[in-house]
Amino acid sequence: MSEVPAAEPPTDGVALDDPATARALRGLRLPLVTLPVAAAVFGVPAILLSGLASALLTIAALAFVIGTLIVIATTGFWIGPATKLLRTRPWRPARVRVYRALKGLPRTPLRLREPDGTTVDLLAPALSWSAQQVLARTGAVWIVGPDERGWAAIRSPGLALPLGQARVADIDVGAGYQISPVQASPRSATTAAEDAVLARAIAGPRRRSRTDLVAPALLLAFAVFVLVDLLRRGVAGRAELLVGLIAATALIVGLLAWRVHRLRHWGTVQRLLSAGPWTRVPATLAEDRATAEVKLPDGRTATVRFHRPSQALLANIAATGQLWTAGPPAEGPVAVGLPGYPFLAVARIG
To answer: Are strands 151-155 and 291-295 parallel, antiparallel or unpaired?
Structure first.
């Protein structure tokens, strides 16, 4: 099994001193504030209004209330104890085995073994498939805690799971079905497009880029039909209706154009990922984190400009001094990522 170097948390200070940990904690706190506010924003007008508007606002408010309850169930009771742990204790490395998630509220059983031989069984709620695969493939994890009530925080290599919730299990996790990685060596795939973790991570957005064309295309066809019919009948006394219809048609055309752009983007991504296997390139990330200097195979130095890269991808480049491209690096557009991780960006070399 050939595992690529990836970002790891520092273990020589308290966990929250690590910028990636602090950023992840802020991200987990945010829904606990925004979802209840959104529920109130829609709920209060729903009480004051009546009719269809009240019904629509009530549905929206209930959706945010349900979202709030889900976030509280998965994160709300953990966030306080975890913050205390992260402020006072360091990350500790451990080996991990991953087991099939339990029925009901998704909770993934984990069995950790620390360097001193201590074994800790945990249940991690809402652990993504990508994070499960990274943990199962690498067998590596970092932990803070548990505290006296069993709360703990975990982190995977490479920031596939920058900060995860966990609690000491009240069951024998070893009695479950152990998860095996679907791809033991992603860097050995014939092309980067065959990287199993990345392929699954982008499958949803790629599929939506096609299905999202349907609604605006149908709306445009209907708008054009109505517009042509109106013009045939004459516009006398209907100027306001005509102007409104033209404006609505223009908006639909803009929406359709944006959806077509997204479809073409994913077509370009697929073409770039099919250029060849993951290729390692020495790289130095610039201070502004918008570009990097890379050394090409012919010895030349070139600048890489990223288009909307994730913070996790940039953190891995900074930590390892390596950039991974789909196929041999050459001037022009290129897909960049990290073999076996759900990170992808389009960049331009030169």
So the answer is: unpaired
Helix (H, G, I), strand (E, B) or coil at 273: helix
**Residues contacting residue 26 through CB under 8 Å, at least 6 positions apart:** none
Q: Which residues contact 153 (CB under 8 A, 6 or more apart)?
A: 15, 82, 85, 86, 143, 144, 145, 163, 164, 165, 166
Q: Which residues contact 208 (CB under 8 A, 6 or more apart)?
A: none
The residues near 167 (Cβ < 8 Å, ≥ 6 apart) are 78, 122, 123, 146, 150, 151, 152
Rounded to a whole number of angstroms, the CA Rg of the chain reads 25
Element containing residue 165 per DSSP (H, E): strand 164-168
Find the length of the chain: 350
Cβ–Cβ under 8 Å, residues 57 and 45: yes
DSSP 39-102: HHHHHHHHHH--HHHHHHHHHHHHHHHHHHHHHIIIIIHHHHHHHHHHHH---EEEEEEEBPPP
How many Cβ atoms are within 10 Å of 288's Cβ, its own excluded? Answer: 6
**Tokens of residue 156, six digits:** 């995977």
Interior angle at CA 185, CA 336 and CA 294, nearest 5:
30
Contacts of 292 (CB under 8 A, 6+ apart): 283, 284, 285, 286, 303, 304, 306, 317, 323
Residues facing 279 on adjacent strands: 325
Q: Tell me the residue ranges of DSSP E strands in 270-331.
A: 278-285, 291-295, 301-307, 322-326
Q: What is the 3-state secondary structure (H, E, C) of 225-246?
A: HHHHHHHHHCCCCCHHHHHHHH
Taking only the tens of pLDDT, the chain with its 350 residues reads: 578 999 999 999 999 999 999 999 999 999 999 999 999 999 888 888 777 778 888 999 999 999 999 898 888 999 999 999 999 999 999 999 999 987 777 899 999 999 999 999 999 998 999 999 999 999 999 999 999 999 999 999 999 999 999 999 988 888 889 999 999 999 889 999 999 999 999 999 999 999 999 998 998 888 888 878 777 777 655 667 777 788 888 899 999 999 999 999 999 999 999 999 999 999 999 988 889 999 988 888 999 999 999 999 999 999 999 999 999 998 999 999 999 999 999 999 98
